[in-house]
Amino acid sequence: MGRLQMNCQPECPLKTFLVLAARQAYFRKMNPEFGSLHALLKRRIQLISDHEFRDADATGHLAALQQVSELITSEHHRLKPILPGRLNHFLQQASFSKALEFIETETKAPANYPQES
Question: What's 12's DSSP letter?
Answer without folding.
Answer: S
